[in-house]
Specification:
Residues 611-654 are annotated as: Disordered. With 654 residues, the chain is mainly α. The chain has 24 helices and 2 strands. The chain folds into 2 domains: 5-46, no CATH class; 72-301 and 354-590, Up-down Bundle (Growth Hormone, Chain: A).
C-alpha cells in the first residue's frame, strides 16, 4: 500500500513530547505504550488527532466533580457576606467618628468654660473667643454644602488627580485613567480623615489650629452623612441583587419594591450602631473629667430657675466648675485615645468598606458633567414628595441638637448638676440605639406608622416640657429626667431611621440617591445652624408678650412677632407642620398624583478610551431596560400617554 506523503508530513510536524495543542497551550500528545517510530513506519496515525484532543480536554476541561450551580451559590454567598461586612464596617466607622467628635468637643468646651483653667493655661490667647469661632465654623459652614456635596461624592480629589495625570502624563503612573476611583467610599474616607484632623488639632490649642480644623469639619459634615446614607441604601440594593441573581440572569421582571425589606433592615442596623455614638461620646467625661468637677451645690449655687423659666443657656451657672486642674499629660493620654479611635475609623472605611458602585457605574454617573451634577439637587427639590418632607428634615435637625443642649443643660444639668450630664446623654443614646429596631415594624406595618409614632412621642414630651420646670439642685427629679431622655431617644430613633428608610423606598434609582441624601442632610444642617443662632432665646414665650385674657394659655400661645423667642414653641410648631405635610404627601401618593423628577442626562462618553470603544455599550446607563420608569430617568409627568404611572409608592395610607 502506498503511503500518503501529506499525512506523514503532518505527523512529522508534531514535536515528540511537547506540542502546542489547539488552545495554544503546551500539551503532551504522545500516547503511553506507543512508539512514534511504529506509527510512522506503519503509516499515518489516523487517530492521532482525536487522541490528542481527548487528552487536551482532560487537561483544560471541567473537573468531573465540578458543580456549576453549587459554585455559583458559593460565589453569591461570599458576595452577600461582603455586603454585610460593608454595612457593619460603615456603621462602626460612623459610630466611632461621631462619638470621638462629640466627646472631644464636649470635654474641651467644659474645660474652656472654667475661668481658672483659662487663666492658668491660656491667659493670653482669648480661649472663649476661639471657642465661639470654632462653634461658628462647625455650624455655619455646612449651609453652603449643597453647592459642592454631590460633586465631591461623585468626583473627589482622587478622581481629579487621576484626570490630571491622564491628561498631562506622569512617569510614575503611565496607565492612570480618570474615573477609575469610587466616589462614595472616597467621600466617606476623606470626611472621616478630616474628623481625625480635628482631633489632632487639639494637641496644640491655638487659633490657627482649632478654627481651620473646625471649618474643615463644617465643610465635610453634609458629605459624610449624605455618602453614609447613600452607601447603606446602595448596599441594600446590591444585597437584593445577590439574593435574586437567578432572576437577574434570566432577565425576569422583579416585583416592584422588592428590595424595601433589605433597605429597612440595613438602615435599622446602621442607626442602631450610630446612636451608640452618644454613649461613646461620654466616655472621656465618665472616666476622666468627672474626677475634676465640683458638686452641684457649688456649680448651681446661683441658679434660680430651670426649664421653661430660664432664659438662654443655664443663667447663673458658676464660672468655676473644676475643683482641680487636670495635668497636661493626662489630657494628652485622653486625646491620644480619641485620636486612635478616629484613626481606627479611617482604617475601617479604607480597608473593610467596599465600593458602593461598580467602576463602570461610577464612570457613567460622573460622565454627565459638572454642571448637571451641580444643578440636579436643586431640580430634585421641585418634586412634591421632597417638598412635603422638608419640614420633617428640619425638625430632625432641631430635635437632636435640642436634646443635647437645651434639654440636657436647662433641665438635666440645672436639676442634677454637671456631673450627671454624661449619664443623661447615655440614657438618650442607649434608648435611641435599642429603639431603632422598632423601625423593623415597617416590614409588616405601613411605613408612616413608625414616623407617626415618633412624632407623637416627641409632641407629648414637648407639651410636658412646656408645663414643667424642675427645681434647681433637686436630685429627686432624676428618674423623671432620665425617663424623658429615654423617651426622647425613642422618638429620635423612629424619626431618623424612618426618614432614611422612606427616602430609600421613594428614590430607588442609584443615580439619584446621592442627590436625595444630600438634600436631606443639608436641611438638617440648616436646622442645626438655626438652633445655634437661638441659643440665647428663652424656652417659651414670656407672659408680657401675650394679651391679658391669654395669660392662662401663655405656654401654648405664640405671638406673631415673637415666634423666634421661644425654643419649645418653634419645636412644637415645626413638628406639627412636618407631621401634617408628611401625611399629606402619603395621601397624594395614595391618589397617584404625578410627581416631577428631573431627567438624568445620558452619559457622555468619549469615542476613544480604555472602555468605551463601541457606540452601543451594554454598560451604559439605562441599557438594561429596567422596568422602573424612574430608573430610566423619565418622570411620570413626562411619560407618554397611555403609559402606566410608576407605582413605587405601593405602601399607601389607608
Amino acid at each position: 500500500m502506498e503511503k500518503d506523503p501529506s499525512c506523514c508530513q503532518e505527523g512529522a510536524k508534531m514535536v515528540p513530547g511537547a506540542g502546542l495543542g489547539t488552545e495554544g497551550t503546551e500539551t503532551q500528545v504522545r500516547l503511553q505504550g506507543t512508539s512514534w517510530g511504529k506509527q510512522v513506519r506503519g503509516g499515518c496515525p489516523q487517530d492521532l488527532t482525536s487522541q490528542g484532543h481527548l487528552q487536551l480536554d482532560d487537561f483544560v476541561g471541567a473537573h468531573p466533580d465540578y458543580n456549576e450551580e453549587e459554585e455559583e451559590q458559593k460565589y453569591f454567598r461570599r458576595k452577600r457576606l461582603g455586603i454585610i461586612k460593608n454595612v457593619v464596617a460603615a456603621s462602626l466607622a460612623g459610630t466611632l467618628t461621631y462619638g470621638v467628635y462629640l466627646g472631644l468637643l464636649q470635654m474641651q468646651l467644659i474645660l474652656h468654660y472654667d475661668e481658672t483653667y483659662r487663666e492658668v493655661k491660656y491667659s493670653n490667647i482669648q480661649l472663649e473667643d476661639i471657642d465661639h469661632k470654632v462653634l461658628m465654623g462647625i455650624n455655619v459652614t455646612p449651609v453652603a454644602a449643597l453647592l459642592y456635596t454631590p460633586i465631591l461624592i461623585r468626583y473627589g480629589p482622587t478622581t481629579l488627580l487621576a484626570g490630571t495625570v491622564h491628561q498631562h502624563g506622569h512617569p510614575c503612573f503611565p496607565d492612570a485613567h480618570p474615573g477609575r476611583f469610587f466616589g462614595t467610599k472616597w467621600a466617606m474616607f476623606l470626611a472621616v480623615g478630616i474628623y481625625a484632623l480635628f482631633v489632632s488639632s487639639n494637641y496644640w490649642e491655638r487659633y490657627y489650629t482649632l478654627v481651620p480644623s473646625a471649618v474643615a469639619i463644617g465643610v465635610v459634615i453634609v458629605p459624610l452623612w449624605a455618602s453614609m446614607g447613600n452607601y447603606i441604601t446602595r448596599m441594600a440594593q446590591k444585597y437584593y441583587e445577590y439574593v435574586n441573581y437567578k432572576e437577574e440572569q434570566e432577565k425576569e421582571r422583579v416585583p416592584r419594591d422588592a428590595c424595601n425589606a433589605y433597605i429597612i433592615v440595613f438602615q435599622t442596623v446602621f442607626y442602631s450602631c450610630f446612636h451608640l455614638s452618644f454613649v461613646c461620646a461620654q466616655m472621656p467625661m465618665v472616666f476622666f473629667l468627672n474626677n475634676y468637677l465640683y458638686q452641684l451645690n457649688h456649680t448651681l449655687s446661683a441658679v434660680k430657675h430651670c426649664g421653661t423659666l430660664s432664659h438662654g443657656t443655664l443663667p447663673g451657672f458658676n464660672k468655676t466648675v473644676l475643683q482641680s486642674l487636670p495635668r497636661s499629660v493626662n489630657l494628652i493620654i485622653v486625646e491620644s485615645a480619641l485620636m486612635a479611635a478616629a484613626f481606627l475609623a479611617m482604617l475601617v472605611v479604607l480597608v473593610l468598606c467596599g465600593a458602593a458602585y461598580r467602576p463602570m457605574e461610577e464612570i457613567d454617573m460622573r460622565s454627565i458633567g459638572w454642571g448637571n451634577i451641580f444643578q440636579l439637587p436643586f431640580k430634585h427639590m421641585r418634586d412634591y414628595r421632597l417638598q412635603h418632607l422638608l419640614p420633617l428634615f428640619i425638625y430632625s435637625g432641631f430635635e437632636v441638637l435640642f436634646v443635647c443642649t437645651g434639654f440636657s443643660l436647662n433641665y438635666g444639668v440645672c436639676a442634677l448638676g454637671l456631673e450627671k450630664l454624661a449619664y443623661l446623654l447615655m440614657a438618650y443614646g442607649f434608648s435611641a440605639s435599642a429603639c431603632s429596631s422598632l423601625a423593623l415594624s415597617m416590614l409588616h406595618l405601613r411605613r408612616h406608622i413608625p414616623v407617626l409614632a415618633g412624632a407623637i412621642i416627641h409632641a407629648g414630651l414637648l407639651v410636658m416640657l412646656f408645663c414643667w420646670a424642675p427645681e434647681p439642685r433637686h436630685t429627686e427629679q432624676a428618674p423623671l429626667l432620665y425617663s424623658i431622655a429615654a423617651l426622647w431617644g425613642t422618638g429620635s430613633a423612629l424619626n431618623k431611621t424612618g426618614i432614611s428608610i422612606l427616602l430609600g423606598m421613594l428614590y430607588k434609582n442609584k443615580e439619584r440617591q446621592d442627590f436625595i441624601f444630600t438634600i436631606y442632610h443639608w436641611w438638617q444642617a440648616v436646622a442645626i445652624f438655626v438652633v445655634y443662632l437661638w441659643s440665647g432665646l428663652p424656652m417659651k414665650v414670656s407672659p408680657r408678650y401675650a394679651p391679658s385674657h391669654f395669660r392662662t394659655f401663655q405656654a401654648f400661645w405664640i405671638p406673631k412677632l415673637a415666634v423666634s423667642q421661644a425654643k419649645l414653641s418653634i419645636l412644637l410648631l415645626t413638628l406639627v407642620v412636618a407631621l401634617g405635610t408628611y401625611l399629606w404627601m402619603e395621601r397624594k401618593l395614595a391618589w397617584h398624583v404625578e410627581y416631577r423628577l428631573p431627567r438624568l442626562p445620558r452619559p457622555r462618553h468619549k469615542s476613544c478610551g480604555y472602555r468605551y470603544l463601541e457606540e452601543d455599550n451594554s454598560d451604559e446607563t439605562g441599557s438594561e431596560g429596567g422596568s422602573d420608569r424612574e430608573d430610566s430617568g423619565e418622570s411620570p409627568a413626562e411619560a407618554a400617554p397611555g403609559v402606566e404611572l410608576p407605582k413605587e409608592d405601593g405602601e399607601q395610607l389607608g
